[in-house]
Amino acid sequence: MLESKKGLNDSKPQAKQIKVEHFSPTVPIFPLSANTPKPIGEELFDAFKHFHFDPPSSASKLRRAIEKFCDDLKIEGGNLNRKMQTLAKTHPEEASYLEPLKLIGNEGTHGSDVAELDLLYAFQMFQFVLELYDRKARFESLNDTYQKLADKVGRSKLQLGCKAAVLVDANLQLAHAELTVTINGE
Q1: First-last CA distance in the chain
Q2: How far, in Å, CA of 65 to CA of 69, rounded?
């Protein structure tokens, strides 16, 4: 049992605390979407598994999940740092979120100073990055619907363009592009 440190009011007795270090089966820190590729999910579950008893190992496994993310997007580079520089060209927001996570993963791999709270923040940020797959799936499902509605109401009546993320077929990379609906044939 862990003894609580005395608080501001030292006259009250402090309750003993229990720290759970292992769950079986593994309890995910955040729910993984069905759109998350399996190799990324497998690395994340390893990170979740080690979180409670070995935060440095968990951070290292999170770093590996970032590598799998870059691999899935077919990002080129000889190491993770170079891959992240390349990722920043097509996905600047995601790359900026992943950079501190990579550094926490480096600390987990080469050091031992990884705080659980920092790791929780890292998981939260990676969850946001992984929403890229959900956005891609939503766009793909809504694109057909949009096209049907545009055809039904008449494209010539539409005055606004549809801005969305577009899937680059073979690479599974999302690039920001503007889909423009012609206005009166222009």
Answers
A1: 73
A2: 6
Tokens found for residue 173 = 């990379």
Confidence of residue 134 (pLDDT cuts 50, 70, 90): very high
The two structure tokens encoding residue 135: 């956005």
Is residue 179 over pLDDT 60? Answer: no
pLDDT tens per residue across span 89-103: 999 999 999 999 999
User: Partners of 168 in the beta sheet?
Assistant: 173
The encoded tokens of residue 32 equal: 């993984």
Tokens representing residue 82 in the block: 């170079």
Contact by Cβ (8 Å): 114, 55: yes
pTM above 0.90, yes or no: no
| 3-state secondary structure (DSSP) of residue 167 | strand
DSSP-derived letter for residue 60 is H
Return the closest-CA partner of residue 34 out of 138, 123, 144: 138
